[in-house]
Amino acid sequence: MSSASSKDYDYLFKLVLVGDSGVGKSCLLLRFADDSFTDSYITTIGVDFRFRTIKVNDKRVKLQIWDTAGQERFRTITSTYYRGADGIVLAYDLTDKSSFDHISDWLAEVDKYAAEDTCKLLVGNKSDIQENRDVDPSDVKRLSELVNIPVMEVSAKTGENVEKAFFSITERLVELKMKGEPEESENRISLSSYRGNFVL
């Protein structure tokens, strides 16, 4: 994590979006960064990123959000982008159980390439089409508790909870950064205070 000498922002954090191809990572990025949405599906080749500056806990935070390609053949490329990441958003499609089942594979990759203390958030996209839901909430709860990572359900199409998801992981990063400034040994965070915002 790095803080800036410029007055434009207090902290700069790198967030990385990972997950299977087609779960809506690019749509989540566009919704949060540009407040836009497109139904057209185009596979991201390699990596794309956007910036957005937000205010959290009286701090101006500049987020650099990376959208990594989800297809298997790109994984050797995207592994380099985990380095230096402050936060990882692991996305899956609520209407596609296989994308949720693959979260464990993505977690293994994150554990392999990202720093141990990297903040993580599970995000189930496409909450706007509950009639096509294919992921059991009890399975989501079980995984969240097993890996000790909070989870939120969002809709990139309607915008529901997208802001809340990115703000929640940013709040944890800011708290970690502020705690670490006076004393580096205080380098842990508590997720319990965020339990109310996540799927139980």
From TrEMBL:
Domain of life, per lineage: Eukaryota
Protein name, as recorded: Ras related Rab1a small GTP-binding protein
The organism's taxonomic lineage, starting at the top: Eukaryota, Sar, Alveolata, Apicomplexa, Aconoidasida
Localization per record: Cell membrane
GO cellular component, one term: plasma membrane
Matching SMART domains: ARF, RAB, RAN, RAS, RHO
Keyword Ribonucleoprotein: no
Known EC number: 3.1.4.12
InterPro entries: P-loop_NTPase (IPR027417), Small_GTP-bd (IPR005225), Small_GTPase (IPR001806), Small_GTPase_Rab (IPR050305)
GO MF annotation list: GTP binding; GTPase activity; sphingomyelin phosphodiesterase activity
Protein keywords: Cell membrane, GTP-binding, Hydrolase, Lipoprotein, Membrane, Nucleotide-binding, Prenylation, Protein transport, Transport
Source species of the chain: Theileria equi strain WA
Membrane topology according to the record: Lipid-anchor
Major localization class: membrane
Example GO BP: protein transport
Annotated Gene3D superfamilies: P-loop containing nucleotide triphosphate hydrolases
Class of this enzyme: hydrolase
